[in-house]
């Protein structure tokens, strides 16, 4: 009886360990950042916009989620928009663990989609050159979504959504309410003729039900486990919306 009891006890321990491991795996979130550092032919540099990483990161990190980073080329991705007066930016830049992670971002080929409960495409103008046509990233997002996970993006990050197709052949955004950097905002920053395509227009072409607010107004849209935000001012709220959706899983 003692031996049988020990066997049962060990068996329960193994089950509990597997359950804990499963829960730990489900708490990981994948952030996608651009590798592109040239703003068209302007001679100016670009990359990911720092606040569109740091503000969702802070929300999700505070909630206990582990975040990994991937970029089209891997390694140390370029960024801009460092605001020394933003304490969230400063916290991220001072975090040795996360600086090591983002400065050594994974290549798409190194990502196992089943490790993640959510994916978040951070914005920045660089995304307009290397997100949309990256088939490997699109497959990662498709697998996370079809595994009952969450796909999210902010500002120009939804460039990563325009060519994601589901197993049924439909575009991910088709028929869903979607938000992103608007045509009006692109015109306001005088880059409508610099970016390779109009993000709002492309999403609408893919069947998205595009929503938007006025210039620089926070706006977050959630529809069927897809979370999208309009601009840098929406970054914190995107993190909050992703967190809310994660709690439903």
Automatic annotation (TrEMBL):
<feature type="domain" description="DJ-1/PfpI">
    <location>
        <begin position="52"/>
        <end position="244"/>
    </location>
</feature>
<keyword id="KW-0315">Glutamine amidotransferase</keyword>
<dbReference type="GO" id="GO:0019172">
    <property type="term" value="F:glyoxalase III activity"/>
</dbReference>
<keyword id="KW-0346">Stress response</keyword>
<dbReference type="InterPro" id="IPR029062">
    <property type="entry name" value="Class_I_gatase-like"/>
</dbReference>
<dbReference type="Pfam" id="PF01965">
    <property type="entry name" value="DJ-1_PfpI"/>
</dbReference>
<keyword id="KW-0456">Lyase</keyword>
<comment type="similarity">
    <text>Belongs to the peptidase C56 family. HSP31-like subfamily.</text>
</comment>
<protein>
    <submittedName>
        <fullName>Type 1 glutamine amidotransferase domain-containing protein</fullName>
    </submittedName>
</protein>
<dbReference type="InterPro" id="IPR050325">
    <property type="entry name" value="Prot/Nucl_acid_deglycase"/>
</dbReference>
<dbReference type="GO" id="GO:0005737">
    <property type="term" value="C:cytoplasm"/>
</dbReference>
<dbReference type="GO" id="GO:0019243">
    <property type="term" value="P:methylglyoxal catabolic process to D-lactate via S-lactoyl-glutathione"/>
</dbReference>
<dbReference type="InterPro" id="IPR002818">
    <property type="entry name" value="DJ-1/PfpI"/>
</dbReference>
